[in-house]
Design goal:
Layout lengths: L6 E2 L2 E5 L6 H17 L7 E5 L5 H14 L4 E4 L5 H10 L4 E5 L8 E8 L3 E2 L2 H13 L10 H6 L3 E4 L3 H8 L4 H7 L2 E5 L6 H10 L3 E4 L21 H10 L3 E5 L6 E4 L5 E2 L1 H14 L7 E4 L5 H8 L4 E4 L3 H11 L3 E3 L5 E3 L8 H15 L3 H12 L3 E8 L5 H10 L10 E5 L4 E5 L4 E6 L5 E8 L2 H15 L3
Parallel strand pairs: 3-4, 3-5, 4-8, 9-10, 9-11, 14-15, 14-16
Antiparallel strand pairs: 1-2, 2-6, 5-6, 6-7, 11-12, 12-13, 16-17, 18-22, 19-20, 20-21, 21-22
Helix pairs in contact: 1-2, 1-4, 6-8, 7-13, 10-13
Length: 474
């Protein structure tokens, strides 16, 4: 049988009814059950949650039935829930493992599975690889199943519908009084995803004036990717400007990433959000510590860290590397340019709900418009601009392309002095002027991703154009 299950940096994602099927989900659940028994962890519960995608509730229950049939106690969050809430529940219940049925920001035709480990962490490759191998070896007769009604009757599956514990955990970490006295106007865009209930509850508790768009369930996500960026947030931008709001907050399909529109109707790149929150934690909250970013994230964080006598740590792409390095170094914030971040003391994974709440707190406590707060940062630390692009390729060309880039280091002539080159994850070229460019293959989609950061966008675009010409992308 072909290996249809393949975990990448964001879990296993595949097209529904192609390889993302009931059988394959049950294979993963059986493989996870086997691992739990091998580790003698069967006395600890397993948490399962799901997003708003087509058949997500059904896939979650099918997985739960397999886990229960293997003698495991399952806590299923039986309503669409943010992935960070599922991770928080894994940690709160002291589970050895948890699962989320989600394809995050992928197109609507996809669904997926994320596996979490003790402490609510993204499973590392040394966990997912054995699960993947085992799952791909499982046949129909190897899967144990129990009917939902029987599992509920026997107490093997417990149903949770409340989000209060997670919401309260966030409320406990923010200055509610400061937000209440600021009387802020906020527009939310869950992008037809799962953040509406949590964000509305948190911000209304803080007495914000909240309006919400795209809040109903739409498994086609309005015909757009549920990924917050300048192109997909045009409706949010319009609402922020028309309502005179202080901030617009969007989250992706499973609410682990966010996008921000400022009071002027400008989209803030995730790099800018990271810099905003890092300076806020250091300068306003008085925290002390470094930051962690992946290779494709702004080096402006390095400048902020250096100015405060701290260190910025660079890790490969994949949030598990960010959270691991944070735990190792005591860094106060970690994130990536794709819109995910977390803060020390919260979960060890991305959380768009908590990040959005922190930004609201920052605006309230600083007493300035968001646009002015970032202008102040640029005045102090300078400006760097990132340009990024994705290039698709024929599957039969992937190995040859990987050989050219990774083994032969066949790179374009950028016409700039090179400081050094790293192959930690893909190939990253560091230029003497402080700029950089990275070329790497996506871990979740058949794409070659290119990121370039320079003092201005024109220089960055020129470097990416060299990549296009060199590898003859269309």
């Amino acid at each position: 049988m072909a290996d249809e299950i393949e975990f990448g940096t964001g879990g296993w994602r595949a097209i529904i009814a192609d390889t993302f099927t009931r059988f394959n989900v049950e294979r993963v659940a059986q493989a996870l059950s086997d691992r739990i028994h091998d580790e003698n962890q069967q006395q600890r519960p397993v948490v399962i949650g799901y997003d708003q995608r087509f058949l997500s509730p059904e896939f979650a229950w099918w997985a739960a039935e397999v886990l229960a049939a293997n003698g495991l106690t399952v806590r299923i969050i039986d309503r669409p829930a943010p992935t960070p809430m599922i991770m928080w529940t894994v940690r709160d219940l002291d589970c050895a493992y948890g699962m989320a049925v989600t394809a995050s920001h992928n197109p609507a035709t996809y669904n997926g599975l994320k596996v979490f480990t003790e402490g609510g962490r993204d499973a590392k490759v040394e966990i997912t690889e054995p699960i993947q191998r085992r799952a791909n070896s499982i046949g129909p007769s190897d899967i144990k199943r129990v009917h939902r009604a029987d599992a509920l009757r026997d107490g093997l599956v417990e149903v949770q519908t409340s989000m209060n514990w997670y919401i309260d955990a966030i409320l406990d970490h923010v200055d509610l009084e400061a937000i209440r006295h600021a009387h802020l106007k906020v527009v939310l865009d869950p992008m037809f995803g799962v953040s509406r209930t949590c964000l509305q509850t948190i911000l209304m508790t803080a007495r914000c004036d909240v309006d919400t768009i795209h809040e109903r369930r739409d498994t086609l996500f309005g015909g757009r990717l549920p990924s917050p960026n300048s192109k997909t947030l045009q409706a949010l931008t319009q609402e922020v400007v028309e309502r005179g709001a202080d901030i617009g907050i969007a989250t992706d399909g499973d609410a682990d990433r966010l996008g921000i529109i400022d009071d002027q109707g400008h989209f803030l790149h995730p790099n800018q959000i990271l810099v905003l929150l890092y300076t806020y934690l250091l300068e306003d909250k008085g925290w002390k510590g470094g930051c962690v970013r992946n290779l494709a994230t702004t080096h402006l964080l390095d400048r902020v860290a250096e100015a405060h006598g701290q260190t910025c740590y660079e890790v490969p792409v994949g949030f598990k590397w960010v959270s691991s390095k944070m735990a190792e170094t005591g860094a106060v914030i970690g994130g990536e340019s794709s819109g995910g971040l977390t803060v020390k003391g919260h979960i060890a994974g991305k959380d768009g709900v908590y990040a959005g709440t922190l930004l609201v707190e920052m605006i309230a406590k600083r007493g300035k418009k968001l646009s002015q707060i970032y202008a102040d940062i640029e005045e102090r630390y300078g400006r760097l601009e990132m340009v990024e692009d994705d290039f698709s390729f024929a599957s039969e060309d992937k190995e040859a392309l990987k050989k050219r880039i990774y083994e032969e280091k066949d790179l374009p002539d950028f016409g700039l002095e090179i400081d050094h080159i790293s192959d930690m994850d893909g190939v990253k070229v560091y230029f003497a002027n402080g700029g950089w460019i990275i070329v790497r293959f996506s871990g979740t989609e058949p794409l070659l991703r290119v990121f370039c950061e320079m003092p201005d966008a024109e220089m960055a675009r020129a470097c990416i154009d060299e990549v296009v010409e060199h590898y003859q992308f269309e």
